[in-house]
Amino acid sequence: MRKMMKTLLAAALLAGLSGLSVSARDLPEEKIVPEDIGGTTVNVYYRKGLYPTAARARSAPHKTETMILKKGSIRREGAKPLACDILFEKDVPVTLRDHTVIYTDVFRPVDREKHPALMAWSPYGKEIGGQWLDDVPGRSGVPKNWVSDLQKFEGPDPAYWVAHGYAIVNPDPRGTDYSEGDVNYWGSELAKDGRDTIEWIASQPWSNGKVGMTGNSYLTVSQWFIAGEKPKHLAAIAPWEGFMDHFRETANRGGIPNPVFPEAIFETLASENYIEDQPRMVVTHPFLDAYWKDKIAHPERITIPAYVVASYTNDVHTHGTFAAFEKLGSRDKWLRVHDTNEWYDYYTPAHVEELRKFFDHYLKSEDNSWEKTPPIRISVLDPGHQDITNLIEKGWPLPDTTYKKLYLSPDHTLGDPQARETSISYAADNRQGVSFYLPFDRDTELTGYMKLHLWVEAKGSNDMDLTVSVEKLDSKGNSIPSPMTGAPIRAMGYQRASMRALDPKESTSYDPVIAGTHEDLLKPGDIVPLDIAIWPMGMKYHKGEILKLTVAPYYAPPETVVPLFGSARITVPKEGYTYMPGTHPAMVTLGGNEHETAAPDRKVTPPESRNKGTHILHMGGKYDSYLQVPVVKR
Q1: Residue 63 burial (CB < 10 Å; 0-12/13-18/19+)?
Q2: Is residue 484 left, alpha or beta, with left meaning phi > 0 and alpha meaning psi from -120 to 50?
Q3: Which of 199, 281, 356, 591 is least surrounded by Cβ atoms within 10 Å, i.e. has the fewest?
Q4: Strand, helix or coil at 31?
Q5: Which whole number is the average pLDDT over 104-115?
Q6: Cα–Cα distance between 242 and 28 in angstroms, integer?
Q7: Which residues pair with 625 in a beta bridge?
């Protein structure tokens, strides 16, 4: 902290010296900013990230210009050719309410008509940027020719949407690349910035006054926040997987600080200025305080039409997507649950067509019967067999659900309650933990929320961090690989014992939600109950197949949990953005250095594990440890 305060003081002194101009590159590496968040002053950490000219940032030179991208031209070899001429306006300045200037790219039809617009809001860079599908093994199944590579990462492809009469607006939000200010992570300031930009879009002479938002991951989370600000001209949103509560669903899931994912994302961001040091906030603000409350979206404030897409298999987004859909205040809302991955699903041509039908209805006022689309369609996973997709349902959670309690037994089975009190223990450094099994005597579907009610004791420590997983095994007890990833499909839960207190307003009988406001450390001999949320899953079990429940010590995930963003080398035209196939313009190669970081010595690592000694699981008698599962009747 003392070092941080010194750098903040240094920054103030540099800025205050009369007649001295300080380059962004010469600013101190880190700073602390006292920010008023909801009436509470919070010291927020910021640090320097990649400079926009860094190879890993893959940023385009900053240059405000207008050009026409010709029909049939391509961005790079193998990419989708443009279906029509596109008017491309690069680095258009947008002035926000506090006079901060950000820059956006605009792709629109070459005509004098008025068009609706789709905005994609994220700090990953509006032209290639620090994250790209090529960085991901197998491009997550997305063929190169499905997209033109004019899209920003996880956003809509201008080559498709402009050909159908839309403008695509890709801002670099506050602080991103060459936009002014410091990069922030969601919260009220981002929501207002997004609102300002939407109103700017609606004021443009080419706009029909209707704006939509679309995209997945960060672009979905941004939709929850920005739409909650109720911009006057935001007409519809299409969130495609994204968390809602940053504290409980990613940064401190189960009350366990996890800076690994946000640190890996931080290292891909580029700015001339500072980036909110969220990894450091994760480890220095372990409770749900004013800072983290500002990172919780409020979907109940959203009343415009929403087309929401979810999956069961995203370690970051699954719970938040379902929870946000439940909370949405929109009368007109749709949910579709797919069985692949967010990027593949988003760019699948049939899904792009369906998304256009949604936006055509609400942004172009087309009478295309979109409103007859079933409000809820889900998938049920069936590894080893054929997944069931596009099941039409009446609600979420599914109304024909019976919650059944499967009690833990010392013989490692799940079933009826046991009268005798007993326990199972394992060393806190035993990463395998213990498992419990239930073979099914009939075909069974479990779709919805699960929870583990578990009595625990820590011997040799005042706390314990747990990982819980539910997995389907074949009839011989073997794991079944996912056809998409080759890894087993597991529904997961995490819990720190000292953070076991629940929020009574947010929790339900099937989905416990931690309060997150304080910790209750364990004393020697304490045996306490935990209610551990296991994220939604839809799974079909055939007769003879086995449910496997595992309880194990939690250990921070490896850095490889995030793809090596910045590793792919992307070759594009040096000028002009697209070129006609068969021609040979001057080219430039971006990326290729996934290990490039702004300040490796400031990297945030996970706190020391609280798993020491022995974990004891109690069951039987008054210790009613059970797994609650959602049994669906069809």
Answers
A1: exposed
A2: alpha
A3: 199
A4: strand
A5: 98
A6: 33
A7: none
When computed from its CA atoms, the radius of gyration of the chain, rounded to whole angstroms, is 25
Band of pLDDT at residue 15, cut at 50, 70 and 90? very low
How much is the average pLDDT of 4-15? 39
Q: Name the β-bridge partners of 531.
A: 453
Q: How many Cβ atoms from other residues are within 10 Å of residue 507's Cβ?
A: 16
d(CA 31, CA 275): 10
Please report the pLDDT score of residue 1 as a whole number.
42
Interval 152-178 mean pLDDT? 98
pLDDT at residue 12 above 50? Answer: no
Residue 153, beta-bridge partner list = none
pTM of the predicted structure, to 2 decimals: 0.94
57 pLDDT more than 80: yes
* Cβ atoms of 127 and 60 closer than 8 Å: yes
Q: Which domains are assigned to the chain?
A: 30-373 (3.40.50.1820), 401-556+608-632 (2.60.120.260)
What pLDDT, on a 0 to 100 scale, did the predictor assign at position 22?
Answer: 43
% of the chain residues with pLDDT over 90: 91
- Which DSSP helix (H) or strand (E) runs through 347? helix 342-347
* Sign, CA torsion 387/389/392/394: positive
My answer on whether omega of the bond before 397 falls inside 30° of 0, hence cis, is: yes
The residues pairing with 444 across neighbouring beta strands, listed in sequence order, are: 541
Please state, in angstroms and rounded to a whole number, the distance separating the CA atoms of residues 510 and 105: 44
Buried b (16+ CB within 10 A) or exposed e, 82-107: beebbbbbbbbebebeeebebbbbbb
**Extended strands (E) in 382-486:** 388-392, 401-408, 414-415, 422-427, 434-439, 444-459, 465-473
Residue 477 burial (CB < 10 Å; 0-12/13-18/19+)?
A: exposed
Query: Cβ atoms within 10 A of the Cβ of 595, count?
Result: 10
pLDDT in tens, 471-497: 999 999 999 999 888 899 999 999 999
Q: Quick one: which of 38, 29, 34 has its CA closest to 11?
A: 29
Tokens of 113: 């008509």
504 class by beta-carbon count within 10 Å (0-12 exposed, 13-18 middle, 19+ buried)? exposed
One-letter amino acid identity for 112? R
Percent helix, percent strand, percent coil in the chain, to nearest 5: 20, 35, 45
